Automatic annotation (TrEMBL):
Source taxon at top rank: Eukaryota
GO-annotated molecular function: heme binding; metal ion binding; peroxidase activity
Binding residues annotated for Ca(2+) 1, in chain numbering: 77, 89, 91, 93
Keyword tags: Calcium, Disulfide bond, Glycoprotein, Heme, Hydrogen peroxide, Iron, Metal-binding, Oxidoreductase, Peroxidase, Secreted, Signal
Any matching Pfam family: peroxidase
Chain positions of site Transition state stabilizer: 72
Name under which the protein is recorded: Peroxidase
Cofactor binding description: Binds 2 calcium ions per subunit. Binds 1 heme b (iron(II)-protoporphyrin IX) group per subunit.
């Protein structure tokens, strides 16, 4: 009897297989340039644009100032979205209505990259929408930073219809309550907020303290690594420039600037453990950032109307073998202000040598 039950089960399995739908394979289409291929033919037009971005906007593929500013622009355009207050999200309104949005206090200093991208679009007869261009530039730019993930990119956003309302972009002097509430309004969890802050691992501040433009948030602004999450957790001991700037608190090293909002989020019970989880988990850092960036890039958009062109985004190289989570020279684990009650802060050692000053990110 068991034998016949086995035969019957096997026959049923074969019948299911015979009637199952065929697997869908992601077949690639050869592009007209004879070099590249894409999963969707519509994406082929982007490969020459990616090359131009690398050569003309990103200084030949560097993880430099224009990358940092382009990544900032993806956020400042997209977060202009609220189910109750309006805004088109990731629609390019910050370029199309730059005279309005660059005047917002939270967009202080962003006019430089808005102008640079606007000029690039005009000079190269770019035909994709401003919303598409901003997200493409951010995804391509961060791929120049060793250790970064491949950030998803979708094409097909319509032209923006109006400027975003003011007051939707979080400020560095906002409380954790205010920041989490603003992100929650836009559909983000507290964990996703921390994931998005990985962008500060390849970022610098120009206007928080205008006396020291280009001051990075961590000691490795040309690497997408976890140093930002480590160094914000260190005791603040000094201001790298002047000491009376709104939204700035003391940092652990000369040449490094710390935002009040970053310091508070690293130490708040709602976010501290997620913050700490990135310290020694580069794979999680990359995955969480890519997922959060994808979600942000689709704010205000219907993904069903867009084409997934993620395969045009270059793959970043891995972090160099010499890179890895560490403390700044001359510091010890006693300098860490651990805030996660669930797990101990990972044990780290300091780089050898005396304390040094961190160099500013050079202007392009």
């Amino acid at each position: 009897m068991a034998y016949y039950k086995g035969i019957a089960a096997a026959g049923l399995a074969l019948a299911i297989i015979a009637h199952a739908k065929p697997l869908t394979l992601n077949r690639r289409v050869a592009c007209p340039d004879g070099v590249n291929s894409a999963t969707n033919e519509a994406c082929c037009q982007l490969f020459p644009l990616v090359e131009l971005l690398q050569s003309d906007l990103f200084d030949g593929g560097e993880c430099g100032e224009e990358v940092h500013e382009s990544l900032r622009l993806t956020f400042h355009d997209a977060i202009g979205f609220s189910p109750t207050k309006g805004g088109g999200g990731a629609d390019g309104s910050i370029i199309a209505f730059s005279d309005v949005e660059t005047a917002f206090a939270a967009n202080d200093g962003i006019e430089d990259i808005v102008d640079a991208q606007t000029q690039f679009i005009a000079a190269n007869n770019v035909t994709i929408s401003p919303g598409d261009f901003i997200q493409l530039a951010g995804a391509v730019g961060v791929s120049n930073c060793p250790g970064a993930p491949q950030v998803p990119f979708f094409m097909g956003r319509p032209a923006p219809k109006a400027a975003s309302p003011d007051g939707l972009i979080p400020e560095p002097f906002d409380s954790v309550d205010t920041i989490l509430a603003r992100f929650s309004d836009a559909g983000f969890s507290a964990a996703e907020v921390i994931a998005l802050l990985a962008s500060h691992s390849v970022a610098a501040a120009d206007t928080v303290d205008p006396t020291i433009p280009g001051t990075p948030f961590d000691s490795t602004p040309d690497l997408f690594d976890s140093q930002f999450f480590i160094e914000v957790q260190l005791k603040g001991t000094l201001f790298p420039g002047t000491s009376d700037n709104e939204g700035e608190v003391e940092s652990p090293a000369l040449g490094e600037i710390r935002l009040q909002s970053d310091a508070d989020l690293a130490r708040d019970s709602r976010t501290a453990c997620e913050w700490q989880s990135f310290v020694d988990d580069q794979a999680k850092l990359k995955s969480a950032f890519a997922d959060a960036m994808k979600k942000m890039s689709l704010l205000g958009q219907n993904v069903d109307d867009l084409v997934d062109c993620s395969d045009v985004i270059p793959q970043a190289v891995d972090l160099p073998a010499s890179a890895g989570p560490h403390l700044l020279p001359s510091l010890t684990m006693d300098d860490i202000e651990a805030a996660c009650d669930d797990t101990p802060f990972p044990s780290l050692t300091a780089l050898p040598g005396p304390a040094t000053s961190i160099s500013p990110v050079p202007a392009s």
